[in-house]
Amino acid sequence: MSPPLVQTYDLKKAFGTHQVLRGITTSINEKEVVVVIGPSGGGKSTFLRCLNRLTEPTSGDVFFEGKKITGPGVDINKVRAQMGMVFQAFNLFMHLSARKNITLPLMKVKGMTEAQANAVTAQVLKRVGLEEKADSYPGLLSGGQQQRVAIARALAMNPKLMLFDEPTSALDPELIGEVLDVIKELAYGGMTMIIVTHEMGFARDVADRVLFIDQGVISEEGAPDDFFSHPQNDRTKQFLRRLFVEERARDIIPPPAGQPSP
Amino acid sequence: MDITANGGFSVFNPEILTLYFKATLNTIAISAFAIVIGFSLGIGAGLARVSKNPLVRLPATAYVYVIRGTPLLVQLFLWFFGLAIVSGGALALEPIYAAIIAVGVHSGAYQAEIIRGGVNSIPKGQMEAARATGMNQRQSMRYVVLPQALRLSLPPLANEFVIVIKDSSLAYAVSVAEITFVSYQLNGKYFEPFQIFLFAAFLYFCLTLVTGYLMRGVEKKYRIPGYGEHE
Predict the structure, then answer these.
(1) Does the distance separating the beta carbons of A81 and B136 come in below 8 Å?
(2) Distance (Å) from the C-alpha of residue B161 to the closest C-alpha of chain A?
(3) The CATH number of the domain where B147 resides is what?
(4) Nearest Cα to B228, choosing from A212, A232, A94, A96?
(5) Contact yes or no for A175/A143 (Cβ under 8 A)
(6) In a domain, B51, yes or no
């Protein structure tokens, strides 16, 4: 059996005296879709950002394809080129058209010629349904379109892993669907992904495994059906209850025994 | 030729205009070269000022503080007289070169601060997104952060370029035949201060007006669609 694509061992991160991650040990297999949920401030985003060292862990290790990528002497840029990342705030390069946003890393990191990069760009833009927006600047695109371009930019690098840091949290509700659809397509296409999200219905649809990160540790994990239907941990239950809108909660969490289903 | 003939001194006398034409060329030369030097130093020192490496950052900080903290006229004298004396005459600069260097190095310190401000006002997410694709620090700065920072810096840079043009007048102190020096000389000879210095002011105003206009054009050219320029 091949080793897990990503492993973390006792990952810890402190900002000053504030301990955000208190030791996260987990592994993610190839083609696995892992959804990370949990209360804000619990360490979800920090965990994700430690995986490509945008945030430098205080201690602990990260392994990618069996190789340690934390510590000195690692060419982190090479590793990052194989991990796509999508941010909550999209972070498209504002001064570049959608096309140039995608071709820039292809040319600078992968050393492609402009023609090669343009060909790849046309493919990935088509994949996210925005081929006609290639020449638009980010400021003229809707939030949903910007995020789809950001996903295309990450995909263009042909990554082995995609990291999503609350990709829909900055979007107007009516634009969330188009972004989630693109991410679902990727999941069904076999992309390995780690997704931090608050979209529980989406999590249930797309996840192979759900991690509940709270107070800097994975306090519960499991297959989505088990996780959402039979949460074990009290804090998980509390969190899920609070998060769901009544009616959606009724869809996913069975009512307490003895009460009729509405 | 007696230029005071036919009703007294006039700056519109052809001979005087020729003098002013040459003087204006000198003012333009000092300003243009000083702006180029200042911009190069400004980008270098501005980026050095945001570096994490203290060996890069501290010299740039020292440059900004020393230049900003001392008068330009004193700096000009140091470049012109001081350098010649310290080097035993080997580095005795022509007055116009001393003026170009003094004004350019001076402006560089201010431009460095403008660039630093520009870089610092680009959201962190831009650098992070660039780094996340695998671009290194240098590439991310050059292709993502700096192009945006420079756009933001254009209005204050236009300001600074206008100041350079006006600062070039200090070159009169080392006898460079630019607008102020020529005016000073003419006034000594004909004692028509109002007319002469009003004309000098007019020439400077024309130069700064054109500069402002050109910079506005640059701003428009590099405007990011969908950003800035409140209607």
Answers:
(1) no
(2) 24
(3) 1.10.3720.10
(4) A94
(5) yes
(6) yes
Decide if B136 touches A, using CB distance below 8 A. Answer: yes
Question: Looking at the DSSP assignment, which residues form a beta bridge with residue A211?
Answer: A36, A221
Number of domains in chain B: 1
Per-residue pLDDT reduced to its tens digit, B184-200: 999 999 999 999 999 99
- At position B119, the amino acid (one-letter code) is V
CA distance B133 to A49: 13
Residues in chain B with CB shorter than 8 Å from the CB of A92 are 129
Q: pTM (2 decimals)?
A: 0.89
Least Cα distance to A242 among A39, A19, A4, A22 occurs for A39
Do residues A237 and A252 lie in contact, with contact meaning Cβ atoms separated by under 8 Å?
A: no
Let me know if residue B77 belongs to a domain.
yes
Measured between CA atoms, how close is B119 to chain A, in angstroms? 14
Residue B107's domain spans which residues? Answer: 19-222
Q: Biggest alpha carbon distance in chain A?
A: 66
CA distance, residue A137 to nearest chain B CA (Å) = 6
Confirm whether B1 is domain-assigned. Answer: no
Q: Dump pLDDT digits (tens) for B101-153.
A: 999 999 999 999 999 999 999 999 999 999 999 999 999 999 999 999 999 99
In a domain, B150, yes or no: yes
What is the spatial distance between Cα B30 and Cα B38, in angstroms, rounded to a whole number?
Answer: 12
ipTM of the complex: 0.90
- Rounded CA-CA distance B48/B46 in Å is 5
Q: What is the C-alpha separation between B145 and B131, in angstroms, rounded? A: 11
Percent of chain A with pLDDT over 90: 80
B52 near A CB under 8 A: no
Q: What is the pLDDT of residues A215-246, one digit of tens each?
A: 999 999 999 999 988 888 888 888 888 876 54
Q: Which residues of A205-218 are buried (b: 16+ CB within 10 A; e: fewer)?
A: ebbbbbbbbbebbb
